[in-house]
């Protein structure tokens, strides 16, 4: 037993040292708890120039932010909004802390100003909620918007939107049921839950019409549109990291994601159980391409006729949509099909940087899949062996190997010492 005591102690020590790595995500699972005001009559608080002002009427709190910059407004109760909240012009650098409450737009039918929030040129809006709300569908909610011009929840018409956590639910618009990004606006979304938003045209949850869009760790469920049940992209450079799209629907193309622009990057995530006429999971127009990487699952998506259709590439007369694969990780599964019946020769659907990907990551939903090894300058986000992954298991394995190596070295040294002693006794005899 003594000879294994050192090995046991080293393995235990390695496990204890690695425990914080596995507990890193504990914050995301913390118990959901709203912050309460000291005075129960307070409904909203405004922090301005280091001073906090409390109000028992939401309108008074909002008016306090007029012509001000770098202001934070925190909700202590649900707020029914009768006209859209506009951020821009003289009101810049605004933070809205939902604090677990609901921001609800009251509007009769579809209106040309029916959104909950509008961000215009020069505006910089941060919306945040409790950390435990991220991607959970719990916590603060933005709801009730119904905008004729698109973006029922938030219309980014220039300016910048950053949203961390919270939910946008039950909003609708011509395009972009929850959010529309236009006029060179910018939207950075992290840990937001999009549920049951609808658009008549494009983007049941989000429509990138013009500007910049980055989406991280967001969940899309039950959203619906003609094109792009969850997200519709009509501008170059959209970046989607580790998104989850499940149960979204498109009446025409792209049950989860509709791509109508180049340089759309999809890194990791899960796109499953979505539905559309073409591209139940993802649809890429014939003139464009999509760049994929990370650990990505696009499986179990269907057409409205119940045929398998995961990532659909439109095959046009003069050009055909392509996938640029630059660093898919082990465990990725991507089903591919196209709008026309594949010929016996097929066409070059995937430009892959790894033969391993060709064997393990891609499958044909139907027909024949032809892939050739190649490279692409358009793949600017190259994954490493550890890209997008939890490093804790690798560190634990490394520590255990290190411990095992140490034990072996100690054993070798002791064996040599015993051999020397034995040799010394032999010589003395």
Query: What is the gyration radius calculated from CA atoms?
Result: 27 Å
Through-space gap between termini = 32 Å
Instruction: State the helical fraction.
Output: 10-25%
Low-confidence stretches: 19-31, 374-391
Which percent range describes the beta-strand content?
35-45%
* Overall residue-averaged pLDDT value: 82
Q: What's the total number of strands?
A: 38
The major beta sheet can be summarized as: 31 strands, mixed
Structural category: alpha/beta
Looking at the structure, what is the overall shape? flat
Q: Tally the helices.
A: 4
Relevant terms:
about 425 residues; alpha/beta; 38 strands; about 15% helix
What does this protein look like?
- The structure is a single chain.
- 17% of the residues lie in helices and 39% in strands.
- The two termini are 32 Å apart.
- Helix 1 (2-22) packs antiparallel against helix 4 (392-428).
- It has a 31-stranded mixed β-sheet that branches.
- The protein contains four helices and 38 strands.
- With 429 residues, it is α/β, with parallel strands linked by helices.
- It is flat and about 90 Å long.
């Amino acid at each position: 037993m003594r000879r294994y005591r050192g090995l046991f102690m080293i393995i235990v020590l390695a496990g204890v040292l690695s425990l914080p790595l596995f507990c890193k995500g504990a914050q995301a699972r913390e118990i959901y708890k709203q912050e309460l005001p000291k005075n129960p009559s307070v409904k909203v608080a405004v922090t301005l120039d280091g001073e906090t002002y409390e109000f028992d009427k939401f309108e008074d709190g909002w008016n306090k932010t007029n012509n001000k910059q770098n202001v934070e407004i925190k909700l202590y109760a649900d707020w029914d909004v009768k006209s859209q909240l506009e951020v821009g012009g003289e009101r810049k650098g605004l933070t809205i802390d939902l604090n677990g409450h609901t921001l609800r737009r009251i509007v009769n039918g579809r209106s040309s100003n029916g959104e909950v929030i509008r961000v215009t040129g020069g505006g910089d809006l941060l919306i945040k909620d409790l950390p435990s709300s991220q991607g959970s569908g719990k916590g603060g909610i933005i709801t009730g918007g119904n905008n004729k011009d698109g973006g029922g929840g938030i219309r980014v018409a220039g300016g910048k939107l950053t949203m961390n956590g919270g939910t946008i639910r039950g909003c609708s618009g011509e395009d972009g049921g929850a959010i529309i990004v236009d006029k060179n606006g910018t939207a950075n979304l992290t840990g937001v839950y999009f549920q049951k938003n609808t658009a008549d045209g494009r983007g049941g949850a989000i429509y990138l019409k013009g500007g910049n869009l980055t989406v991280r760790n967001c969940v899309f469920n039950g959203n619906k549109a003609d094109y792009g049940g969850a997200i519709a992209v009509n501008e170059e450079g959209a970046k989607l990291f580790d998104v989850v799209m499940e149960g979204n629907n498109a009446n025409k193309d792209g049950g989860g994601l509709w791509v109508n622009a180049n340089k759309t990057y999809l890194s990791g995530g899960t796109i499953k159980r979505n539905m559309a006429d073409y591209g139940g999971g993802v649809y890429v127009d014939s003139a464009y391409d999509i760049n994929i990487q990370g650990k990505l699952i696009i499986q179990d998506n269907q057409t409205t006729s119940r045929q398998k259709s995961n990532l659909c590439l439109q095959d046009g007369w003069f050009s055909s949509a392509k996938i640029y694969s630059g660093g898919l990780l082990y465990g990725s599964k991507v089903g591919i099909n196209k709008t026309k019946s594949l010929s016996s020769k097929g066409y070059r659907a995937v430009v892959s940087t790894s033969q391993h990907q060709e064997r393990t990551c891609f499958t044909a939903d139907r027909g024949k899949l032809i892939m050739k090894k190649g490279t692409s300058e358009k793949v600017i986000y190259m994954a490493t062996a550890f890209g997008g992954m939890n490093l804790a298991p690798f560190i634990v394995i490394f520590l255990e190997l290190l411990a095992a190596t140490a034990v072996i070295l100690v054993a070798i040294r002791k064996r040599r010492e015993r051999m020397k002693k034995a040799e010394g006794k032999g010589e003395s005899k």
